[in-house]
Specification:
Elements (H helix, E strand, L loop, with lengths): L23 E10 L2 E11 L4 E5 L6 H8 L7 E6 L2 E2 L4 H6 L1 E4 L11 H11 L5 H11 L15 H12 L6 E5 L7 H16 L3 E6 L2 H7 L2 E6 L2 E6 L1 H5 L16 H9 L22
Parallel strand pairs: 3-8, 3-9, 6-7, 7-8
Antiparallel strand pairs: 1-2, 1-4, 4-5, 9-10
Helix pairs in contact: 3-4, 5-6
The structure holds adenosine-5'-triphosphate (ATP) and magnesium ion.
Magnesium ion binds next to helix 1.
């Protein structure tokens, strides 16, 4: 199977109902690579069943935070727990309660979508791998493509399959490191739908992103990591409240390129209202 996926094994009994605190708790986390201080005291909590977006520029340390939480890296100082388990002293329990999906889809091209899912369910010793696969294919709108080789899938379909594979064994916490980087607008919307569905099913989602609109559309809470610390952490409304109140002025809102793209192409891959059969009046405004 292709490398890149971090599979966290599940116990037969499932995990962690004994904790009542936040799904993820991070306090005073520090991490340096040699003399480069990347995290200098990071604090945040993620409530159960919520979607938390960690924003930051390239190199801000987002992946470092995720890797510490996923027990792939050790922090220099501070504490972090996932599902009530300490990442440093209870790494095994943490791994049983999480799934980590990295930036690049780690699906096997030679297999079909369904075979990929069945394979993971078998590796996890779950009962009825076929049933689990069919259920996930439905949930992620991949049923029609179930028996096609993944090499024929679009980027968005691969990403959805990748996320579906992460869910096998129903981990209560899922980390998505830049889930939509490199995807086109429709595929991003499909992934957003899938992520929202996860939270609706009770999964806690921590995602990293550089797309501000992604955080705006998806997240219950947003934190910005900058120069090694979380500089703001709150709901979108709280973050917007940090700026001075808007003054009322008349502005003609022009559609964004994304609005135009989605109107022409449709957000589910079908032609939108302004489909090409009607044509776009390219002479408009020339007069
Ligand atoms: N193994 C490593 N050794 C040395 N430096 C590293 C290592 N891993 C990461 N870094 C550095 O730590 C900083 C944070 O990296 P990290 O990958 O966590 O950032 P990021 O916010 O995920 O960035 P991006 O948006 O580009 O994915 C960067 O300056 C990076 O170069
Ligand atoms: Mg990163």
């Amino acid at each position: 199977m292709t490398t890149g996926r971090t599979q966290m094994p599940m116990t037969a009994t499932g995990v962690t109902t004994h904790v009542w605190g936040p799904a993820i708790h991070v306090q005073a986390l520090e991490k340096s690579y040699e003399d480069v201080e990347v995290l200098r005291g990071v604090d945040f909590d993620v409530a159960r069943g919520s979607i938390f977006a960690l924003l930051g520029s390239n190199g801000a340390g987002k992946t470092t935070v995720v890797n510490i939480l996923a027990t792939l890296l050790t922090a220099d100082a501070g504490t972090a727990s996932v599902s009530g388990f300490d990442v440093a002293t209870q790494a095994g329990d943490v791994r049983e309660s999480i799934s980590l999906t990295g930036q690049f889809a780690a699906v096997d091209d030679i297999l079909t979508g369904r075979e990929n899912l069945v394979l993971i369910a078998r590796l996890r010793h779950l009962r009825d791998p076929g049933g689990i696969a069919d259920d996930l294919l439905d949930r992620f709108a991949l049923a029609d493509a179930a028996t096609r080789r993944v090499s024929t899938y679009s980027g968005g379909m691969r990403r959805r399959l990748d996320i579906a594979m992460s869910l096998i064994g129903t981990p209560p916490v899922i980390f998505l490191d830049e889930p939509t980087t490199g995807l086109d607008p429709q595929a991003r919307i499909e992934v957003w739908r899938a992520v929202r569905e996860l939270a609706e099913h009770g999964t806690t989602v921590l995602l990293t992103t550089q797309h501000l609109d992604e955080a705006e559309h998806l997240a219950d809470r947003i934190a910005i990591l900058h120069r090694g610390r979380i500089i703001v952490d709150g709901t979108l409304a709280e973050l917007k409240g940090l700026l001075p109140a808007a003054t009322v002025e008349y502005v003609e809102r022009q559609p964004s390129l994304e609005d135009v793209f989605l109107a022409l192409v449709g957000d589910d891959g079908t032609d939108g209202d302004a489909g090409t059969d009607r044509g776009v009046d390219t002479d408009r405004g020339r007069r």
